[in-house]
């Protein structure tokens, strides 16, 4: 059995592990992570070390494995190749997750406040945490409105508040800016960036390269494997081109080069 095949077999039925003393500067450590779905290689030998209190932009084309990577960190895909370092609370407290908006049943008869409150399932009741989360995303005035009556941008803010109400140490965001206008997008990006000042590690997948370049501390370029993990200014256009498989005249490369020249 090859070493790579052995790693795959070991990843099938085990949960994320948690380390503290010698890895305390890292929030997440991923080593040699392979995920295979019925012959399709979703992730190929992924290695990442994510520092605590960092805003990470997780970038790649459709089907690159971004959601799969997040699901691995969450423990929804069982693997021993993911370590959550410096664990101070229980697993459920430790991670907040904002799924893509289409995964939520928005016609469920529940208010904004109750939806956010449901994010503390399994934890002690904490009205202050609910109020704080709603205020953070500027939804406190809509606390009693039914979620079915919300706009797309308001719904996205509900999902963020629902994740924040757990007061997590790691926040995973799966395309949180999809379908929101510029004003809501800027609000959320500023919220995400401010969380790192409180020690929260934020990982955001997005197709909005411009926002990631402007707001994230570091970028991870993923397309089944890791092509780059660095600050934006140190990632070459050639690496972007290889990761996204675009032509020389791609607007993506123009955007990246323009950002590099202006910073």
UniProtKB/TrEMBL annotation:
Principal EC category: hydrolase
A GO term for molecular function: ATP hydrolysis activity
Gene3D superfamilies linked: P-loop containing nucleotide triphosphate hydrolases
ABC transporter domain span: 28-249
InterPro entries in alphabetical order: AAA+_ATPase, ABC_transporter-like_ATP-bd, ABC_transporter-like_CS, Metal_Ion_Import_ABC, P-loop_NTPase
Protein keywords: ATP-binding, Hydrolase, Nucleotide-binding, Transport
Pfam families in the record: ABC_tran
Enzyme Commission number, as recorded: 3.6.3.-
CDD domains named among the record's database cross-references: ABC_Metallic_Cations
Keyword check for Nucleotide-binding: yes
Protein name: ABC transport system, ATP-binding protein
Protein source organism: Corynebacterium kutscheri
